[in-house]
Amino acid sequence: MVMRQFIFIVVFFLSDAVVLSAADGLFADLDGDGKDERVSWVKFTETENEGDFYQLQVIDDDGSLLWESPQSTDTENPLVFGNWHFGIRLPQLVADIDGDGAIELVTPAPQSDVSPILFHVLRWKGGRFVVGRSGTLLETPKGSGQFKWTKSGASEGTWISSFLEIMKNGHLHVEIFEYRGGVDVRIGRAEVTPMADGFQIGKWIQMMMTPTNEPASEPAPTADMGRTSYRARLSKADHYNSAGKRLDSVGDILRQDRANFHRGKGDVEDSADSMFNTPKARNGMDKKTPVLTGSKNTSWKKVVINGTPLVEVEVSGNYLKIKLVSP
What we know:
Elements: E1 26-28, E2 37-47, E3 51-59, E4 65-68, E5 81-84, E6 87-89, E7 93-95, E8 104-108, E9 119-125, E10 128-139, E11 146-150, E12 157-166, E13 172-179, E14 185-195, E15 198-209, E16 227-233, H1 250-262, H2 279-283, E17 289-292, H3 300-306, E18 310-316, E19 319-326
Parallel strand pairs: 17-19
Antiparallel strand pairs: 1-2, 2-3, 3-4, 3-5, 5-6, 7-8, 8-9, 9-10, 10-11, 11-15, 12-13, 13-14, 14-15, 16-18, 18-19
């Protein structure tokens, strides 16, 4: 289905401020002592019907365990996390998102269609995360740049689709998604600030634009052209080229993944990039060296070549920096 490439269930971008990976976790000063605690998640079980379940753990700066979420397989519980067959619920951001001095954890509900993302916001209170609020962030009214918390069941409109990072100025970097029916989709990124019942766009980081499968010309330069990041599930289809030949190098598999994505054949966990949306640009991936970051896994190339891992790729200079998120 062509529209599957536009379903951004969880969109994670690497940044200097936030690294979303179970190995490294998310960092924030939860208890106000000036030292960051680590929020990470560890797989504890797998079921045939749902998939992988993860337990959230909060580790103090001295290494002690402060809190952990229940080891439950109740997918309706906002405190239960997983990489499931019908979608993903894993943390996107841990930060004071509304400027009230308390730390919140933001996680999207599993998503399997093109509709506003339902976010669960957990608040750190009394030494634990508790359920705060749930809702979508729809632009209301249209064209206002104001995204208000709502329980609306709208299937079209403009909404915040993911929280990418907390910026140095305290503002939030988010992805904006617009859907008007059919294949009428636009995507952008913006810096937003909190308001009483949601968020207000402060400035655009990347203006809204329509994703294309194979544009006839190179895209116009943007601030991301020199450094960008994306997430990809390196599925079985990404391990074979268009002639059906099995690919045996990390670089070739990464290139095939981007080719499949931009041709509308990507995986539901894939996110967009601004560098490899033309054949010419993808050919340039051969000049970049894949390297592993955030781990000392010496067999990571075998994981990519022989498995179907979920990875985060940062394009930086002559390198494709890879983080293994899950097998």
